[in-house]
Structures are given as C-alpha cells and as structure tokens.
Amino acid sequence: MSEHEEGMTLVSHLGELRRRLVAVLVVLLLGLIGGLFISDPIYQYLTAYGPLPGIELHALTLWDGLGMYMKIALIFSLVITLPFTAYQIWKFVSPGLKPSEQKATVRYIPFVFLLFLLGIAFSYKILLPMATSFTSSINQNLGLVETYGMAQYFTFMFNLILPVSLLFELPVVVMFLTKLRILNPLRLRKMRRISYFALVFIAVFVTPPDFISDILVTIPLILLYEFSVFLSSVVYRKQLEEAEEYESRYVKVDAGEKI
Apex CA 213: angle with CA 190 and CA 119, to 5°? Predict the structure, then answer.
C-alpha cells in the first residue's frame, strides 16, 4: 500500500470516528433534554425513598435547584447513551473483526446496559446507605446539627454511585478486549496483584473509613474481576480452538498441495 493510500485510509478512519462521536453527542444531548422533563419525579423519589427518607435539603446558592436538575438529567442521559455508545464502538472496530467475532461481540451490547443498572442498584441500595449511616453517626456523636445542602447531598450521592456503576462494566470490557486479542486470561492473571490493589484502593476511596464497609465493597469488586478472568478464559479458549481448526483444515491442505 502506497503512502497516499495509507493517508487516505487514516483520513477515512478519522472521519468515521468523528461521525460516530457526533452521533453519540447528539444522543447524549437528546437524552439530556429528555432527562430535564423527568428530573423532578426522580428527585422526589430520591428524597422520599433514599438512604435518608424525609431529609430536608437546603439551597445554599441560587443555582442549586437548577444544578440538581441538570445533574439528574445528565445521569439519565448517560444511562440512555451508554448502550448506543457501545454500539458505535462496535461499529467502528467491527470491520477489523471476523464475521464470527462480529456476531459474538454485538451480543455484549445489552449486557453493557444491564451491568450498569446492576452497578447503580448495588451502589444505591448497599453502598450509599452504609456511607450515609456512617457519616450521620459521626455527626451525631459530635453533637452536630445535620443541615444538608441540596448540591452537596447529590454530589455525595453521585460521586459514590457513578464510579462503582462504571466498574460493573469490567466483565464486558474484558470480554470485548479479549475478542480483539488485546487481553487474554494469562495476562489478567499476571496483573492480579496490581488489579487487586487498585480495586481495594477504589473501595477504600468510595466508602466510609471503616473496615466493614471496605470489605463489603471490595469483595464484590474482586469477584467481578475474577468473573472477568473466567469470561476471558472462555473467549480465549474458543479462539485457540478456532486457530487449531484453521490450521488442521487449511495448513495441512496447503502442505499436501506443495507435496
């Protein structure tokens, strides 16, 4: 391939990447607009059935109410856009995959959405109540009057929920990268100590500073990693079987023809 053809190929790839990024941004914007219409019901639910039901929130600045609506709308838009983004990534890399790999990887897209929702449920139902209970007990022991600002309360909530929800995408990401032959179970096992350290650090960072909370969050994250290694092994084993089948079917035939 000439330098001119390589340059044209690079330009076409960059153009396709730009089109797909624009499509993702358009869907994100539409989701943001739609999220503004349902921000109030979501806000009412989070305050009525959250870890501190009946909590009285205060606006400390004139922008707190609008900022809260925008944050809820943004989270809603991210949830809606996530599977579409995964599909656009698949469309961008699929020309370099075999037909069988294309069919296999497109099946991951629904699980991107489901695992993200599972991460939200875990962090909202388990992690957030632990964090608020711990911090509230500290405040009560110090004899403090708990007066919560709206912006601070929802920032605290989203800063806990979003990182954990994204970590729940780990199995799908590992399977996808294994399909692309970027990762394999051997490499993941070699990285186990570093990965465990990173997961423990994340768990300690997003949880209250007590041992029980750290353990309750670290264990699911480590199980997620080990599950990802198992899924990578399944994908990698199929790749080896396909390679062996290809060699037995075509390489031996070519050798026979040469003889």
Answer: 65
- Identify the band that residue 44 occupies on the pLDDT scale cut at 50, 70 and 90: confident
Separation between Cα atoms, residue 214 and residue 47, nearest integer Å: 26
Closest CA to 185 of 222, 233, 242, 235: 233
Q: Report how far residue 54's alpha carbon sits from residue 72's, in angstroms, rounded to the nearest whole number.
A: 19
Report the distance separating Cα 122 and Cα 152, nearest Å.
21
- pTM metric for this prediction: 0.75
Q: Which amino acid is at 75?
A: I
Containing 207, the helix (H) or strand (E) segment is: none
Rounded to the nearest integer, the mean pLDDT of the chain is: 81
Please name the helix (run of DSSP H) or strand (run of DSSP E) that holds residue 87, with its range, or none: helix 64-93
Both tokens of residue 128?
A: 């957030």
